[in-house]
């Protein structure tokens, strides 16, 4: 529940402070731009989580939402500010950048073997490395993540992980693999769908 409140605060923040402009027309255009962008970001990416214990294992389908509060680009023109907050242009991200990303995660079915809650919140520090055409055609990423979740009895079950990603089609389509330093959910993998 606290995570949903955090998401609501972030969305409201983007709506309240997006239209700071001197003219009414520009303000309305900015508001439409940010509202549209915020709604598109609500579309989740599909992911598969490992669910296991000492005797059994299976893969559970889930969803991840990508929220990027802070991005620092080191691959853009020097006359433009390298810092972006909340809304990040794909050229800034994939031409080479570092970002702090927050991801709410939700599994569609309960964890049968690992005794974890269906909901988790992950924070990731990720670095993007352009490979082809300044990252627009191909870009890779590496990240360190920390997942906050609980077990079914309400006790904290937090863990670290390492994430590897590759992205194409101007950053819209990607594949991510995460190795978790946790014995009950060792990995997750899935598509990264990011709309701009």
Key attributes of the depicted protein:
alpha+beta; Porin; eight-stranded antiparallel barrel; 3 helices; globular
Q: Which SSEs are present, and which pair or pack?
A:
Elements: H1 2-17, H2 24-41, E1 45-52, E2 57-64, E3 67-73, E4 83-85, H3 90-94, E5 97-107, E6 116-132, E7 138-151, E8 159-168, E9 173-180, E10 187-193
Antiparallel strand pairs: 1-2, 1-10, 2-5, 3-4, 3-5, 5-6, 6-7, 7-8, 8-9, 9-10
Question: What can you see in these coordinates?
Answer:
The chain is of the alpha+beta class. It has 2 domains: 1-42, no CATH class; 45-193, Porin (Beta Barrel). Helix content is 20%, strand content 47%. The chain has helices at 2-17, 24-41, 90-94; strands at residues 45-52, 57-64, 67-73, 83-85, 97-107, 116-132, 138-151, 159-168, 173-180, 187-193. The protein has an 8-stranded antiparallel beta barrel with strand order 1-2-5-6-7-8-9-10. 24% of the residues are buried. Mean pLDDT is 83; it is low at 19-23.
Structurally, the number of domains stands at: 2
* Helical coverage, percent range: 10-25%
Q: Assess the beta-strand content as a share of residues.
A: over 45%
Enumerate the spans where pLDDT stays under 50 for 5 or more consecutive residues.
19-23
Q: What's the CATH architecture of the largest domain?
A: Beta Barrel
In what order do the strands lie side by side in the largest sheet?
A: 1-2-5-6-7-8-9-10
SSE topology string? HHEEEEHEEEEEE
Q: The CATH topology of the largest domain, please?
A: Porin
Total of DSSP H or I helical runs spanning 4+ residues: 3
Q: What's the gyration radius in Å? A: 18 Å
Structural class: alpha+beta
User: How many β-strands, per DSSP?
Assistant: 10
**Overall shape:** globular
Mean pLDDT: 83
Biggest sheet descriptor: 8 strands, antiparallel, barrel
Query: How far is the N terminus from the C terminus?
Result: 27 Å
